[in-house]
């Protein structure tokens, strides 16, 4: 696949809906260890609604479709994580403007705006043991791949590897944000639910691009 069009965005949402559903219990367990335990249910509801909206939509511009999906996620999952993910889709979609398809450069632009939007909204930075710790390195990897004129599948693969590494590194961090921050030293060595959601997001894009 050389680029993503609106039909591919819809396929990505179907992939994310399936992935969040399959991992609902895991996300709940991870969140329950240092939070209120509703992350799996929240993400499953959010992406089920977004996938349904994507299927109904007749929008031809990927950016506008992604913005619409962000609005649906915000309405369906008004939790902290739901709001952050919604902000990411809204900011990322807006950054694409009138692009008709997403190659490496456009996908890098989307994820860069996605992460920056989440960081601004959540007032968080890399190193706080959050979703940022998987999405930020993925965005950097996409940017580097685009700058090197690598094909889309290579760029997406690099982003996925970076996100996986980010998840591993975040597990050894001390939580400094949200409910998990109450656990301080006890959070070290525990996998973060939000960081796991970030990995699943990147993986969803990668799986569809690989097809």
Describe the protein in words.
- By secondary structure, this protein is mainly alpha-helical.
- It has one domain: Serine Threonine Protein Phosphatase 5, Tetratricopeptide repeat (Alpha Horseshoe), CATH 1.25.40.340.
- It contains 9 helices and no strands.
- Helix 2 (24-34) packs antiparallel against helix 9 and helix 7 (132-147) runs antiparallel to helix 8.
- The N and C termini lie close together (7 Å).
- The relative contact order is 0.15.
- The model has no long low-confidence stretch (mean pLDDT 92).
How much β-strand is present in the residues?
under 5%
What overall form do the CA principal axes indicate? globular
Instruction: Indicate the structural class.
Output: mainly alpha
> How many beta-strand segments?
0
Most strands sheet: none
Task: Please give the domain count.
Answer: 1
Mind telling me the CATH class? Mainly Alpha
Instruction: Predict the CATH topology.
Output: Serine Threonine Protein Phosphatase 5, Tetratricopeptide repeat
Name of the CATH architecture: Alpha Horseshoe
Helix coverage percent of residues? over 70%
Q: What is the succession of H and E elements? A: HHHHHHHHH
Over the alpha carbons, how many angstroms does the gyration radius reach? 16 Å
Mean residue pLDDT: 92
Question: Please, how many helices?
Answer: 9
The low-confidence parts are none
């Amino acid at each position: 696949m050389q680029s993503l069009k609106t039909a591919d965005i819809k396929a990505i949402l179907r992939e994310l809906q399936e992935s969040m559903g399959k991992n609902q219990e895991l996300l709940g367990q991870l969140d329950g260890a240092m939070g209120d335990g509703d992350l799996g249910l929240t993400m499953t509801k959010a992406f089920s609604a977004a996938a349904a909206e994507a299927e109904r939509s007749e929008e031809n511009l990927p950016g506008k479709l992604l913005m619409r999906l962000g609005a649906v996620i915000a309405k369906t999952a008004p939790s902290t994580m739901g709001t952050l993910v919604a902000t990411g889709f809204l900011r990322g979609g807006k950054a694409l403007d009138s692009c008709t398809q997403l190659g490496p450069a456009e996908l890098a632009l989307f994820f860069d705006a996605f992460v920056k939007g989440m960081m601004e909204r959540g007032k968080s930075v890399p190193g706080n043991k959050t979703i940022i710790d998987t999405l930020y390195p993925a965005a950097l990897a996409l940017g580097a791949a685009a700058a090197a004129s690598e094909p889309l599948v290579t760029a997406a693969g690099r982003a996925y590897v970076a996100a996986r590494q980010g998840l591993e590194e975040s597990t050894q961090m001390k939580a400094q944000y949200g409910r998990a921050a109450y656990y301080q030293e006890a959070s070290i060595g525990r996998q973060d639910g939000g960081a796991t959601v970030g990995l699943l997001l990147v993986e969803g894009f990668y799986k569809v691009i690989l097809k």
